[in-house]
Amino acid sequence: MKTISQLEDSLDPYWHLHEEDFEAPFMEPLLTAQNLIFMGGRDVQTLNGEWRFTIDPMREGLRQRWFENDSQPIENWTIPRDYDDGAWQTTHVPSCWTTERAEWHRYEGAAWYSRMFVTEQPTGGEQLFLRVGAANERARIFLNGHFCGLHIGGSTPFFVDVTHHVISGENLIMIEVDNSRRADAVPMYHTDWFNHGGLYRDVELVKLPKLHITKFFIRLTADGIRVDLTLSAPQSGVAKINIVGLYSGDIDVIKGNVSVTLAAEPKFWAPNDPKLYDVSVSFDKDIVRDRVGFRHIERRGTSLFLNGIPLWLRGIGVHEEDKEQGKCSNEVDIRRRFKHLRELGANIARLSHYPHHERVAEIADEMGILLWEEIPVYWAIQFDRKSTFENAKNQLLEMIRRDTNRASVILWGVGNENADTDERLSFMRRLAETARQEDPSRLITAACLINREKFQIEDRLTAYLDVIGLNQYFGWYEPGFEGLEKLLKSSKPDKPVIISETGADALTGLHGPDTQLFTEEYQAAVLTRQIDIAAQTDYIVGTSIWILYDFRTDRRQTRHQRGWNLKGVIAADKNTKKLGFSALARAYQIHFKDAKPD
Ligand code: GCB
Known about the structure:
Elements: H1 4-9, E1 45-46, E2 49-55, H2 60-63, E3 89-93, H3 97-100, E4 110-119, E5 127-132, E6 135-136, E7 138-143, E8 146-152, E9 158-161, E10 169-178, E11 198-199, E12 203-208, E13 213-221, E14 224-231, E15 237-243, E16 247-253, E17 257-262, E18 277-283, E19 286-292, E20 297-300, E21 303-306, E22 309-310, E23 313-318, H4 331-344, E24 348-351, H5 358-367, E25 370-374, H6 386-403, E26 409-416, H7 422-438, E27 443-448, E28 467-471, H8 482-490, E29 497-501, H9 520-535, E30 540-545, E31 551-552, E32 564-565, H10 579-592
Parallel strand pairs: 23-24, 23-30, 24-25, 25-26, 26-27, 27-28, 28-29, 29-30
Antiparallel strand pairs: 1-12, 2-3, 2-4, 4-10, 5-9, 5-12, 6-11, 7-8, 7-10, 13-14, 14-17, 15-16, 15-18, 18-19, 20-21, 21-22, 31-32
Helix pairs in contact: 4-5, 6-7, 9-10
Bound molecules: (2S,3S,4S,5R)-3,4,5-trihydroxy-6-oxo-oxane-2-carboxylic acid.
């Protein structure tokens, strides 16, 4: 019996049929947060548009190395093969295959995208990078037959340097995207949202001078405006920074790095006056731009302060989910979401349960909406596995580095509803420390569970958080509100608590007494009561209701739900408001109109 490598060496045409370790050659290079490049103000060549597409449930693409095949038409073949790019169907990028065609709707597995594009081989020392906004859940990039890298994690951007693999003229790019649920993934098997697959954010090329700015972080600290700049090479020199109307000057960069605090007193960004400054930084031939707000967010005792003023968070959760587009967001969708938030009188959105499209935070900056962003360390994952930790940590760094200049983001969330085990504590403590180290200007949180034995808000992780998120569903999964009152009375947290989730399912149009589950009346009553109780508890700094829109999830199969979570205060059409919508708006108005200004 020959080993696989012997079969391969013998050029046996059937060897790939026996190869089950076919992924091994395609695990490296891993594309990580280390490869991220600051993108503000850069010109790009878009690769969005029509791509050829096929699902690949048997993983033949990697087994048979489809990416190495030439493009001879089938009539000219002398040996048959199972790869014929020209025969594939087409699909649009960005999109989710799960919403593109009925027959792909429930497909979980690998799929291949391919297209041609025309470019020039970079000359004069320039570099060409491919940037993918997000692909769920892992993606492998192949360019003109070369494997360029693997990215793991379904909601954050990644870059690959393609300078040496492009040619002047026609190039073939192929991307294998795989949304299989896996033991080592973050999230793992079990989630309360739909597992969409695809290249569902922008794909683009960006050409940069060899010496370019890779990192540009700018944010307000207690001492002034802090700037962190990193270059692609350990070069020293002078960077020029301009914050229009506020500051203009030189910064000394030493060996490719600088961290400096500028003595400037910006007008604060605030929800009711979201002042943004146009900022640019240049070094040598490279220049980047951004629109940035400056504000302070801090915790003192059990209170939160925004620019020194007490802050009460009137919030609601949002999933990246759409009946027609799946996880794919666009400008219209994002702005509609925030318009609804405004109508509710809400001031914060919890972007559940993974990093959303980067435009969300940019638009929130413009509109003065606060954000909680988080990574999908959701329910059970393999907390004792090193590669799972590296994956979660990388997603966290990619999220923070992508959005760190956004004033709207006040909270980084490191997880949701994870049981308080030793392994989980060690895993999430390290995530909280990573977030704090990467971005000391924001608050760290996680949505925690109740200690059922003591019946208290108690989770060992809270020692490492600034704000305790508390998910609780009294009035829904747990009948009545006595339990909630008892819990809040018996708990003495030393940090601010935000009710990070609560709610009830309501089928749009189903009416009845407010004691009947799944009616709109029931949901409205739960939200009203929950907010009444929260508002009377001094260590609670806000609520984030679950959720703005009904969303697709295969876990829910009652006659009312049929594959949808119905806790939205608006139906899945993103238009029809349930009674819970006005109940929530009323509750936010009554309780928090003047009491805790923002
Ligand atoms: C939760 C989860 C959220 C679910 C929600 C529900 O606690 O964090 O993802 O969708 O409950 O509706 O049960």
